[in-house]
Amino acid sequence: MRALTWHGKRDVRVETVPDPTIQEPADVIVRITSSGLCGSDLHLYEVLGPFLEPGDILGHEPMGVVEETGSDVTALKPGDRVVIPFNVSCGTCWMCGQGLHSQCETTQNRDRGMGATLFGYTKLYGQMPGGQAEFLRVPFGNTLPVKVPDGPPDERFVFLSDVLPTAWQAVDYAAVPDGGTLVVLGLGPIGDMACRIALHRGAGQVIGVDLVPERLERARRNGVRALDLREHGKKIGDTIRDLTDGRGADSVVDAVGMEAHGAPAGRLAHQMVGLLPGPVAEKLMERAGVDRLAALYTAIDVVRRGGTISLSGVYGGMTDPMPMLTLFDKQIQLRMGQANVHRWVPDILPLLTDQDPLGVDGFATHTVPLEDAPEAYKTFQDKADGMIKTLFRPGAAA
To answer: Buried (b) or exposed (e) across 330-344, using 16+ Cβ within 10 A?
Structure first.
């Protein structure tokens, strides 16, 4: 089959690799029809190379059609249409029973001290082959895949793999009071969808912050008060307080994470680690990694006293300096973590089979053949061509 594989910093290639096979009685093989390019994939493209090996298959936002089932699979049959959550979760352990599928006890990576395995996401998270490929082996066939109806195009359902539950959890964790104000830092796919979900769930005002013109305009079209960071700069906190009776936002979602702009020291640290030999860089990042914290510091500044910050952007540092005095003095509540996909499926799926209130139809700005994936990664990294969300189509002509 053809699959997108990692070979080094900013070096991904579409290659022919062996087809996946049934390995356990509960496995299913899925023919991938659509697979998303995620902002988290750029962390692999740019920063997290020490935890990858050449040939690793990337991608954690796939959907497709069941091709083959193991002998123990009773919930699915060949021909069923399914979305694959990015968490590899069993659905039956204690953690899954608590709705904490990203902490699944069956697939936790205890040797690394990490949570549940993720598709296509480094040795830290199980080194499971990902879904930017023509076929994917999916374990826990009775509980992990999400069966979706035939009929609507893939775009209606594919974001249930990651974007929708991640944004939904970000808003839920932000605990926006009815009629309250939410600030969303970063208007990429997760931030953009978090804005839509917050408005759908009753936020009185949603303020989005970014510096990419296409993202800002897209958010404005959906009722968001979008602020250009290039215009407001270090005064962004004052601007937001002016919009909130001098108090600050009730809630903030940080949808940026470790690669925030405006953090030259952190950027230099990332670049220096990238020059080290793989094993050395891996140990350094695990024990002394530093993030670029500009977005998180902004969140702490703009949230009101007694407010809540929800982190959905990925952070990976182990020695990040945190302004604990400010966090304590402002009585800030802080929630974070990988999205627990299955926890939110019952809330989201009815919205996808109804009248599309979140606007998933048309959410992708680009749809390209899988063969064009390396170019798409570069375009996305460069924030060029108006690219905000891309879907790959395995098997489509390049």
So the answer is: bebbbebebbbbbbb
